[in-house]
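G., before I forget:
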Amino acid sequence: MLARSADNLFWVGRYVERADFIARILEASLRLSVVPSREDNADQVWRSALDSSGAGALFDASGRTLDELAVREFLAFNSENPSSICNCIIRARTNARAVRTALTVELWEGINGAWNALEDQGRPARRAEFAEFLSWVKSVTVAVEGAASRSMLRNDAYWFLRLGAAIERADNTARLLDVKYHLLLPEDEPVGGQLDYYQWTTLLRQVSALTAYRWVYRDSVKPWLVADLLVLNRQMPRSLASCQGAIVDALERLAADYGRRGPAQRLAAARLGQLESASINAIFQSGLHEFIEEFLAANNQLGQAITEQYLS
Amino acid sequence: MSFDEMTGQPGSGEVRESYRALARWLDESPPDLLEARARQAEFFFRRMGITFALYGEHNTSERLIPFDIVPRILSAREWRMMEAGLVQRVHALNLFLADIYGAQECIRAGIIPADIVLTNPYFRPEMTGWRPPGDIWVHIAGIDLVRTGEDAFYVLEDNARTPSGVSYMLENREMMMRLFPDLFSEHRVRPVDTYTDLLLQTLKDAAPASAAREPCVVVLTPGPYNSAYYEHSFLADKLGVELVEGSDLYVDNAQVFMRTTQGPCKVDVIYRRVDDDFLDPLTFNPDSALGVPGLMLAYQAGHVTLANAVGTGVADDKAVYTYMPEIIRFFTGEDPILHNVPTWRCREPDALKEVLSRLDELVVKEVGGSGGYGMLVGPAATQEEIEIFRRKLIADPAAFIAQPTLQLSTAPTLCGTQLAGRHVDLRPFVLTGPQGARATPGGLTRVALKEGSLVVNSSQGGGTKDTWVLDA
């Protein structure tokens, strides 16, 4: 297949996943911001929403004042923010249109339908309506994923789509974990206190894993177990280890189809090996924050290797 | 009064033979059925993203071309005549191009003035002395026909560069078969979906002698922002070949390669939907980001075939068009089967004088214009528009031709809840390979949806219809 087509498919996967992620961040932030606490808490929540979406620097450069409405608008609708939900949907559709013939009718209709419906959604400002918009975004990504998995041939087109989604999801989970370290705990708040509890459960909600947590650990919410669930647990589809597994799967299927492994396969497999042999205690000892930073850098490096090997 | 495809003369109470079964069906159908089917068709087209882009519009840059669900019907006899005329004309176009880039005998014989050919903006001096495989220059042609009476068909223009619209011909048929299966069982309609097989064969047959036994064919598009992008992707899909943009190709050692996920892949035939000017920034427009640097080198070395060939634009120029009857006689030794619309060449002083005195009743066209842009329809124009054209004509007469305002035939069309006659034209598609020229039965019928309007172009609010050729 054309390298450009593979690139388009890869980015369809990434943008759809990103739209979903931004929607989840916003949903969790809406919830967190109404938690009763010190006065400056709300702004911190929106600051961390910006930072964990990777749009913090861009927001600051735009000269906007940080408040809930400004951040919501910037992350959901703003046309200058390349990763706003609207832009993600538009870009996913632009990339899909460029490879229209590589997509099944179902998948194309899912993406094109979302793009067509974007206008009707408007730009709701009131919390309740904004929350509805976010649910709509999540339903779009579920529909697109479902269409891909139910209707596409398992050929290279499918694996590039999946690869983009897996890389993006790994990136997103790592950023979401970073939220904990961007949110400074109030000094007089004991660790494990009320505020902490809200933050960790919110984090679990963002990845739809609060119930899963209880099923897996049968324990109250503890930060190291939350970290274990999101970093190492292979049952948890958004954990870093699961995402890395999905990346390796897609890359190995491509290598098998093409009869050739390359740097991307070797890099991805090595990362997966490291994650499989790691324990959460060791990660905490050497610093969870450092671990996540390192993961983000390695994921980025892998993205570049994939681009060089297949997409250019 | 215009000729009507269904009734001959409107109000005559007669129904022409080829329309009898349809007329009966229309009479018997409940009134809301057509409306419901029309809504269904629109819903389906929109959902599939079958759109085209309009130049110069910012917001709603993707539009549907309105589809009219009442088919336009041609009898077997009518089609036989058209087909013979189309084959003759496209054959002559190919011989003409081979001649002007070769021996130039038609110029020496005085069939056409040298300057019209040699100073034509679409004439490519680079191609002089060059011969494409099989001497085929125009592999894919679209010939625009209009009708003014029972046996009066005219060629309005020849499209010998990158004619578009064939995807609508194919999609319209799909839609009609889905919406009205009963109608098809009552008529013997000749199929159009043979077009894609024939196109693929035509492109493969055009491969250079050096190509692999199974030549690699691609469709080259300017990209998703081009007005005909849907058609480009549709054709690539139906042909089962890659849809490439300029940046997907590169030239190495005078050979063309495409970048794939498995490394470089040699390309033998390029069905290009990019104009000559944008093909190769090293030879033509240096600012073009659409083209492939070095492509002309590979082309002239004979390592890749472009369809259509470079330089065919000179054959669909409107100034050259006026000489087509003589060109056909000269190259085929036959009288033209399909006639030209009588045309004034404004470059000739007598003609210019007459045109200027009758601007309010004529159609004036720029020789280099297309798509309904840059033309004056005298009877429909305001006094101001006429004066603007008068000044343009006086300033540069050679840039214009003029034709009488033809009363294009009308065909029954669903307008709101009523059937009414609307003016139509027809663009049949002709493919040329080693076995000669072949026309797909039917073509794209374009319809001016506005009452009384004669402008059928989709960029000017025209719609399309399925076109049936009956197999008698």
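Confidence is low (pLDDT under 50) at residues 182-189 of chain A. Chain A touches chain B at residues 1-6, 94, 97-98, 100-101, 105, 108-109, 112-113, 116, 156, 160, 254, 258, 260, 310-312 (CB under 8 Å).

More on Monday.
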